[in-house]
């Protein structure tokens, strides 16, 4: 271990979907830099999707399997959710590290690859230990091999050169779980959509409808996000204003039988959500509309169009459903309803 710079803790941030040889080199650098390492597992607590197929617990297990007992004892794995808000995400990472160390002698391990690496510049209080690129390995390419190769043996042969041996075994076993078939179908559907419609930017509209301590949700009836809970919404039509589009999508997907004038009168707030990584379908900017119907009898609803189900859900139940929401819809709800996020 190199302690020349006298760091107490090294921090490594990533999604590790999946953990590959480039990640392994960064982790080795972290272990060589400080006696204690904090690995931040990003995109935690999300519903599984083709970009984030593995839970944070599965990723931690995947990484542990590549280490010996002494190395494992020196590492803390900490999950951090995607807040889609740079300031809030930075604070969450800082808080997570502060819970694991009281030291101020902290090194941040990273490789500056492209615009996606800009997060490394946000932690001025930590010293960046920049590393070189370790081969041409990208998790995006690995997921393509994993989900697109029809021959399992060929897939494993390709992945075996790009991930540690224990991870290759893990990925092989994971193909036999129910999640794999569903996520493979989702990945292929997204790729087909990109061929037809491109990568955006797209404009969408969403509706947060609140009434008597409940919010109106749908359960998606098709990929991407089949079975996930979501806000009623969809793509903006060519001649619509965003409010008109939000009301149209709300009515189409839930059958909410309220007049446009009633909904317009209940409009409480509008916010734009434009994080580049918020949607798997490409660069998608949504205009979310918060309608508050007040203390009233919950109107009848029924799922239609893209929605398999429409349901009024108690706002108090939403935090416990975080890992079942489509894309960033939980965070949109949190923005308007101030849900408790630990």
From TrEMBL:
Residues 198-336 form the Nudix hydrolase domain. This is Bifunctional NMN adenylyltransferase/nudix hydrolase. GO terms for molecular function: hydrolase activity; nucleotidyltransferase activity. PANTHER family: BIFUNCTIONAL NMN ADENYLYLTRANSFERASE_NUDIX HYDROLASE, PHOSPHOPANTETHEINE ADENYLYLTRANSFERASE. It comes from Formivibrio citricus. It comes from the Bacteria. Gene3D superfamilies: HUPs, Nucleoside Triphosphate Pyrophosphohydrolase. SUPFAM superfamilies: Nucleotidylyl transferase, Nudix. Its cofactor is Mg(2+). It holds the Pfam family CTP_transf_like. Keywords: Hydrolase, Nucleotidyltransferase, Transferase.
């Amino acid at each position: 271990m190199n302690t020349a710079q006298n760091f107490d803790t090294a921090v490594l941030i990533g999604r590790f979907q999946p953990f590959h040889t480039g990640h392994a080199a960064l982790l080795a650098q972290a272990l060589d830099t400080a006696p204690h390492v904090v690995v931040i597992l990003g995109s935690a607590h999300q519903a599984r999707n083709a970009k984030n197929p593995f839970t944070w617990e599965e990723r931690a297990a995947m990484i542990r399997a590549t280490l010996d007992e002494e190395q494992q004892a020196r590492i803390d794995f900490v999950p951090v959710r995607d807040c889609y808000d740079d300031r809030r995400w930075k604070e969450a990472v800082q808080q997570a590290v502060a819970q694991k160390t009281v030291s101020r002698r902290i090194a941040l391990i990273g490789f500056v690859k492209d615009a996606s690496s800009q997060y490394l510049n946000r932690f001025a209080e930590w010293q960046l230990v920049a590393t070189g690129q370790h081969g041409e390995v990208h998790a995006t390419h690995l997921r393509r091999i994993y989900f697109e190769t029809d021959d399992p043996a060929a897939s494993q042969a390709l992945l075996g050169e790009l991930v540690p041996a224990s991870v290759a075994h893990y990925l092989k076993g994971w193909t036999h779980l129910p999640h794999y078939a569903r996520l493979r179908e989702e990945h292929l559907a997204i790729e087909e959509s990109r061929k037809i419609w491109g990568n955006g930017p797209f404009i969408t509209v969403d509706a947060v409808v609140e009434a008597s301590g409940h919010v109106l949700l749908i359960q998606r009836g098709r990929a991407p996000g089949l079975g996930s809970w979501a806000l009623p919404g969809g793509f903006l039509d060519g001649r619509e204003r965003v409010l008109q589009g939000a009301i149209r999508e709300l009515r189409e997907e839930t059958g909410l039988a309220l007049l446009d004038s009633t909904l317009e009168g209940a409009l409480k707030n509008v916010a734009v959500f434009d994080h580049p990584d918020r949607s798997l379908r490409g660069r998608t900017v949504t205009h979310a509309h918060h309608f508050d119907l007040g203390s009233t009898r919950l109107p009848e609803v029924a799922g239609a169009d893209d929605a398999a189900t429409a349901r009024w859900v108690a706002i108090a139940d939403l935090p416990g459903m975080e890992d079942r929401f489509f894309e960033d819809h939980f965070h949109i709800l949190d923005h308007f309803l101030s849900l408790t996020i630990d």
